[in-house]
Amino acid sequence: MKIIIPGGSGQVGTILARHFHASGHEVVVLSRKPAPAPWRVTPWDAQSPGPWTSELDGSDVVINLTGRSVNCRYTPANRREIMESRVRSTQLIGEVIAKCNRPPRVWLQASTATIYAHRFDAPNDETTGILGGNEPNSPDTWKFSIDVATSWEKALDSSHTPHTRKVAMRSAMTMSPDRAGVFDVLLGLVRRRLGGRIGDGKQFVSWVHDADFIAAVEFLIQHELSGPVNIASPEPLPQAEFMKALREAWGVRFGLPATKWMVELGTWVLRTESELVLKSRRVIPGRLLEAGFAFRFPTWSEAARDLCQQWQATRQ
Question: What range defines the domain where residue 243 resides?
């Protein structure tokens, strides 16, 4: 297959490009800052057509991951860039696909599990899940994240690509042993004895092992699913239990807890948002499970042990 990955220079894009390249597929990453890689990297600005458009014509799959990182303070300028980088790039991909003589048969579009409401009472699947934005007393930054997610998916839905199947991948945090990834950061806290309860620790954490994320992407390419699909482990768990399992996997008994005010202060100092650790994301992959997808790492304890072993092996 010829697989095009706009915005594929980040952690998730690299995970996918590395896998598909190793599997013998032709991989083309579209990047605003091209850098040498084992696969082909083509420049684009994510805003306007250019020579890169010829890559889509005759390709098999497009996996659009474009979007400015949300690991920042939500200043007016950052909010504008976060929103526009996602919506405009999605619109642009749709416009180019619509003009292809041989359009790709599948368009997998990044979305986020953050689209669901902050809740503890029940898990969110694609059918019965509650979209966020109307939770009482929720911070303005949380509502902004919902606006971004819903606008992102509306841009996908409004693209007229009748010969291309479209999937909105509502992904949870992808855990891999790669440097500077989410797991690397969390394990760094554990190693420094800082990986304890955050706030009351009751907020749910949704996650997915990178092996299962890759397998889910392959499954979506091969099976006729369309529309929103949650890519997350079937067993999210409260943050306190999540970190306890990670400490046990690493062999650490204690992790310093952080109160809510400590989190707010710390994220302000680090120029990021507390939503990333305080919002409860209780998401389950209803449609994948119904379609017969089998997770290799359905529980966090076994996933954490595997990731710790891989992390150690790659650092030796």
Answer: 2-315
